[in-house]
Specification:
This protein has 309 residues and is of the alpha/beta class. It is built from twelve helices and ten strands. The longest helix has 17 residues. The structure holds coenzyme A and zinc ion.
Length: 309
């Protein structure tokens, strides 16, 4: 059956509160984060990455993650929420705060690991494996990012074999979802198709997720290539907020609204209401003091004006 005639469900993790906010010039307060997460949940987003337990010196924007986790557990006990943790120290902090799901972050090149988490590739691999094993043993859900899985801003194209080998090791260490991340937004659909074919030999398609940035306007095309390859789990960021502070040139993530629009118009179900996502973008624009939104934002807003609630 072709993708255009299916009614299959796709699962979206909105990463705006973490990947989005870690890179903003304007510092936002905890109240705004809680509001954004609540609005995403109200829009029907089933999974949200709500923060990171990382060094506050490295990423000051994530310093309030413990408070965010505790509050969200009270406010939204039924929503799936995760936090990024780079090491066992981060896991301990996550557990103390009451986090139920963690994501480790392993970059596929030597230099990117050093820039991002001050570890060699081998050290990062060991830290990721140890963190995944400890998290699983403690009954937490787990995701593992394989970052710079297409190109590295420092080392150029990442070898497919390396990405596949790391993804396999993440799966073997207990990762329930392996997230293939185009950290700098340089992938193209042909590359996505080819890499996912190789990756599917190492990790079942149902356990693979993709994470695209829209630096070159190919985020939606790449997501389509992933859909056609059989992937049903996607990261995206409401309003396209995002970028990695340690990866020069990385723009925001594929916008959740672009992904939802494309998927729903093509016969997939996301469970997400676009009008409510627009409300979340309005709130985020006010807080971040700049225009936000993916490629479809102007059209979506015009539609909203024509069909007022
Ligand atoms: N959360 C919070 N603090 C942490 C931590 C964590 N996960 N891991 C280590 N620390 C603290 C240490 O306790 C130490 O604190 P101190 O200076 O008060 O004694 C300090 O950070 C340095 O610890 P060290 O083990 O020497 O780490 P480092 O300086 O080599 O930094 C990381 C390693 C991973 C903590 C740091 O590079 C980091 O947080 N990177 C985050 C990258 C990120 O979020 N990137 C974007 C998302 S992909
Ligand atoms: Zn990212």
């Amino acid at each position: 059956m072709s993708a255009s005639t299916t009614t299959e469900v796709i699962h979206i993790t909105d990463v705006a509160p973490r990947d989005g906010l870690q890179n903003q010039q304007v510092r936002t307060d905890t109240a705004f984060k809680l509001k954004l997460i609540q609005m995403l949940a109200e829009a029907g987003v089933g999974s949200v990455e709500i923060g990171a337990f990382v060094s506050p010196k490295a990423v000051p924007q994530m310093a309030d993650t413990a408070e965010v986790v505790k509050s969200i557990n009270d406010l939204l006990p039924d929503v799936r929420t995760s936090v990024l943790v780079p090491n066992l120290k981060g896991l301990e902090l996550a557990r103390n705060a009451g986090a139920r799901e963690i994501a480790v972050v392993l970059s596929a090149t030597e230099t990117m690991n050093r820039k991002n988490i001050n570890m060699s590739l081998q050290q990062a691999l060991e830290a990721s494996v140890a963190t995944l094993q400890a998290a699983s043993a403690g009954g937490m859900r787990t995701r593992a990012y394989v970052a710079v899985a297409f190109d590295c801003p420092f080392e150029g194209e990442t070898p497919t074999d390396t990405v596949v080998a790391l993804a396999r090791q993440m799966k073997e260490a207990g990762a329930q979802e392996v997230v293939i991340a185009d950290t700098i937004g340089s992938a193209s659909p042909g590359m996505v198709k080819e890499r996912l074919k190789a990756l599917a030999q190492a990790v079942p398609l149902a356990e693979l997720a993709v994470h695209f940035h829209d630096t070159r306007g190919m985020g939606a095309a790449n997501a389509w290539a992933a859909l056609e390859a059989g992937v049903r789990r996607f990261d995206a960021s409401v309003g396209g907020i995002g970028g990695c502070p340690f990866a020069p040139g990385a723009a925001g993530n594929l916008a959740t609204e672009d992904l939802v629009l494309m998927a729903e118009r093509s016969g997939f179900r996301t469970g997400i209401q676009l009008d409510k996502l627009l409300s979340a973008i309005d709130v985020a624009e006010a807080a971040l003091q700049r225009p936000l939104g993916g490629r479809s934002i102007a059209w979506l807003r015009r539609q909203r004006e024509r069909t007022p609630a």
